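Q: How would the structure tokens look for this protein?
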Amino acid sequence: MDGYKTQRFNEYNYYRMLMYFLSQTGLRISEALALRWSDIYDGKVTVERQTSRGNNNQIVLKTLKSTSSYRTIGLNPDLVLELSQFKSLQEKLSSIYDTFKINSDEIIFQNSMGNYLTPSVVREVIKGHCKRAGVSYKGTHGFRHTHAVLLLEAGASLLYVSKRLGHKSTDITSSTYLDVTKKIEEDELEKFASYTKR
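A: Here is the predicted structure in token form.
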């Protein structure tokens, strides 16, 4: 994705930024596409709306699935830096080109015309890039699944992962993501061996 060029503004690689963001946060695609720059503050992002399709196939902003979906999660410093650079790029392009528009809601992931991205278009674009790269397409939810599994393999608690993903309970998280991976199994056995040696 680093080498991907958009048709109108070669340097404006918003699909790469979106994919990186999804992989680092575990947000649902509908949540990420509804984010505004004002939702990011002090190294955290607040999730409080999502995009959906309304009448005439228009994008509308809606409430989230459940109260647990409303959350504020931390962002790693590398992601914060990339987001800052991405925002600066949007501002720069907007000041140089009349045809580059900033969305009136100041959404983060917009096209060069200032429009909301739609999940279906994002999926088709990513699917095309996967095909060109020779890898199978796993859907945008694959970023969420990978994020959760990597957190668990890194030793994050089930409660932390559950809250980060906006699940109602840890039961949902465990039934979805705790198909014990080889790494988790090895780590847990190592903990047990270490404990019993004492």
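Strands lie at 40-41, 44-47, 50-53, 59-62, 71-74.

The helical segments are 14-25, 29-32, 77-96, 119-133, 141-153, 158-165, 170-177, 182-197.

Upvote if useful.
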